[in-house]
Amino acid sequence: MKTALWLYLFLFLAFFDLHAQYPILTPFAISLGAGPAFIGWMMGMYSLTHLPGNLLAGVLVDRNGSRRYIVFALTAAGVILLLQAHAQLPWHLLLLRAASGFALAFLSPACMTLLASLSSDPATQGKYMSGHGIVHTLASVVSPAAGAFIVAKAGYSGTFSTLGWLLIFTGVMALFSVPKHVRSISAAKPPLPADAPSKAAVREEFPVSRRYYLLPFFVSCSQGVLFFELPLSQGSDGMVSTGILLSLLSLGALATLSLFFLNRLAPGMRIAAALLAMALCFFALAAFRSIPAGVILFLLGAAKGVLFPAMASLFISLGGAGRMGRTFSLQSIAMSLGAFAGPVAAGQLRGFVSPYFIAFVLLMTAILLLPPRGSGKLQAYRAEWSNPAA
Fold first, then answer.
1. What are the start-end ranges of the H helices in the chain?
2. What is the pLDDT of residues 110-129, one digit of tens each?
3. How many Cα atoms sit within 13 Å of 217 on the Cβ side?
4. d(CA 84, CA 71)
5. Would the pTM count as exceeding 0.90?
């Protein structure tokens, strides 16, 4: 538990640092002389350079453990922010954002792999993943306002320098706090029921299909659609109203992330229910303008709070020991691609159909990716989660 608390602290500081930049990056780029098209590339470059970093992280974390890559990601990102404080031209900012995306691509797979390795009990693993979601959500609520406040007091250069030193300090703490070796999650596997298929048999009969990685892709696409359409739908005073609505989204996520007893339910059941609830929320945004958007977004956030820990638990059960790094890196790649594809598709089709309806279709498609109730794969991971000895 001590290791988990340290990881939560590091993740909070890292997410705080990242989200604090969101409200100030575009004004900073404009102050350097960047145009709208260049700013779009600058924002997208972060996600694009995430992809090779995620691919490397998956293999390296499984081979060498998580500690060194957590320290590397935090420290390297801090140094890049110190350099970003002295950027003079738009292409300086573009290159530094690309480097930051590559460096921080190692952080999430390494941290989630280490969290998953702290226990062999599926319910406890689910609690750890819920804690990860709570930390991320808290950081996303607090940090944008904090970033804007620091800019008002210290300017762009002072803000980036402050955030950079914060990340470097966090990396130094991680060096002395994260253990070098954590016992494998396979060290204490609970016995399955006598009539359940063996792990080896399940692995051989049902290899981890790439179609499961379409699940985070479609979910991330729907989120990208929301972040694209919500500010546009709020009109001229969109900045204030969008901020309030996104805060309601985060509060809804916090409400369900705090319900740790949900982690005792099978991940497949939670994923299906959450996807359906999210799809219905997007349909309501598209079709029922009379319903207050704040109510819908709170419910949407509540569904997200159920979905993300369950999705992490699903990938733990599918990946198995020794492949956690690869599994979570592929999940991160799928989400990065979705975050890029969602706004692009919404922008191209906005004149023909509501982007919220596009998100509804994507999420209903994601439900179809779940294995049938009676399939061997579904029974395999349901057996692990329903076993009383777990």
1. 2-31, 36-64, 67-84, 90-104, 107-116, 122-177, 199-205, 214-233, 238-257, 267-287, 293-319, 324-349, 355-369, 376-386
2. 877 777 777 666 667 667 76
3. 12
4. 20
5. no
